[in-house]
C-alpha cells in the first residue's frame, strides 16, 4: 500500500452506483445492471424516481458459474420493446467483472438500433469517482460526449477525490456519523446575527441535483433578512452557471436560477457550474479577499469542505451538509456549527424546482416565533 | 506489416511455452521485434529467453500495491525479445482468471512498446476454465489463434474442444502445430485432424532430447543449439507464422471420429 493511502473502514459510496448516476446525467433512458438482482437496489430505486428505468439481469448461482451473455442480450431486446429507449447504458457489477463477462458481445448479439454505453465497472475501487470516470470514458468511446468534455470532467473528478481525502469522507480511517447541531439553535443564532446588523455571506456549493434543496437555505436566509429589513447585508454566491457540464446538470442550474429569480433573490456571484463543486473553492477565496473580507459570518451549503478556510478565518462559519460523516471533519476545519439535512438526496430526485429544506423551514418558523414574542 | 498478435492454445503440458519461446527466439533472429506474454499463473513462458532467470510478474507487483511502470514488468531477453509474465495468486486462493484480466489491462495501460512490436505471443494456460482465461482474445488483444497438439487421443480431444470454444467466441484459427510425442502415424493423424476441422498443419516438431536439454540449462534451442535440426524446424514454423495470412472459423469433430482417427 502506498504510504499516503489510509485504510478506511466506514462504508462509502460505490463506484457501480456512481456509474449509474453518471449514466443518468448522460440522459440514458434505461440502465441495465449486469449482475445479481439485489445489487445497488436502493440507488436503482432512487434513480427510477428520477425518471430513468433501471433493470437487472438478475444473475443467480447458475449465472455466476455459466456466465450471463444470453441473459444480457435477451434483456436488451426486452427493454428495447418495453421502453423504446434512445440511449441505453449497461453497468457491470462485482460478480460479472470477476467472472470476466464481456459486455460488448451481448450488445452485438442483441443487434439493436440504439446506441449502448457499456461500463465495465465493479465496486472495488477505493474512490467511487472511478465509477464516474469509467462511465464517462465509455460514453466518449460510444460518441455520446466529446473528448473535451471528458478531459474537463477528468480534472473535476481528480479534484473531487482530493477534496474527499483532505476534509471529506476519505480523510480518516473511521468517521463517526452524526446528526449535527440542533437546527432551531443555529436558526436562532443566524437570525440574531442578522438582527444585530451583521453581514452574511451565503455560499451554495452544491453537487448537481442536491442544489434543489441546498438552494432553499439561501432562499430562507434572504427571506428572513428581508423580514428584518436587512436585505442589503446578505451577499449570495452559488455554483449555478448554466453553460457548464452535461445537459442534465445544466438543466438543474437553469431551473434553480429561474426559482431564485421568481423569488426575487439575487445571486451576486456565480462561482461555477453545478458539477464544479470540487474546484469552486479558489474562486470563493479570491472573491472574499477582494470584496467581502469584512463580512461577519458565512453559511456554506452543499459540499462545504471544498471551500478552503484561509479567507474565512475572521468569520463565523456555519455549514449545511447532507453527509452524517461530514460533521466531524467540518468541525475540525473550524466551522462553529454543522447542520445535517438527513435524506436530502432522495428528495431532490425527479424534481425541477427548489424543495424546502428542514433547516430553511426551521429558520422561517423561528423568525415568526421570535417576532411574535417581541410583539407580545 | 500488420502487427501479429497470436495466442497458442493446447492441452496442459503439451509444450506450449517451449514452442512459444523457440518461435519467439527464431523470429528475433530474423530481426522481428517480438514480445512474449506469459498468461499462466506458473509464469515460465519466458524463462528460456532469460537464461533460466525468473522475472517479477505483474501480479506479484500489484499484490504489493506498487504503481507498476513499464520497466518494472517488461524485460529484455534473447536478442531483445520483450518478456512479460502475468503471474497469479497462490494455488487454491483468490481468482487467477480475474488476475489475468487485471494484469493485461494494466499492461495495456503502461506498456508503450507493445505498439512497436511485429509479433506478440500470448502464451495462455492450457485449460480455459473461466472467463478470465480468454480475456486476451475477448479484449481484442489477439488476432490469430494457433493450437498445439500431439497425435495422441487426449491432446487431440483438448484441441477439438478448443476449436469449439474458438468458434463460440468468433475467433478464427490460423493453424495447428504438432509437437510430436513419437506415436505411430503421428504426422498423418494431426494433418488429417487439421484438414477435417477446416484448418492446416503448420509444422511437425519432432520429439528430440536436445529441446529438453536446452530447457534444463535455461535456454531456447535457437540460442543453445542453433545448428540442430530441430532449430531449423522452429525457424520454418516462425517463417510460416509470420507469412500466414489465412484463418478459418474452425469446425469440430464428433468424438467417434476423433477416436477413429487415433486408432
UniProtKB/TrEMBL annotation, chain A:
InterPro entries: CfbD, Nase/OxRdtase_comp1, Ni-siroh_cyclase_CfbD. Pfam families: Oxidored_nitro (PF00148). It comes from the Archaea. Gene3D superfamilies: Nitrogenase molybdenum iron protein domain (3.40.50.1980). One of its GO terms (molecular function) is oxidoreductase activity. Residues 21-157 form the Nitrogenase/oxidoreductase component domain. PANTHER family: NI-SIROHYDROCHLORIN A,C-DIAMIDE REDUCTIVE CYCLASE COMPLEX, COMPONENT CFBD. This is Ni-sirohydrochlorin a,c-diamide reductive cyclase catalytic subunit. The lineage of its organism: Archaea, Methanobacteriati, Methanobacteriota, Stenosarchaea group, Methanomicrobia.
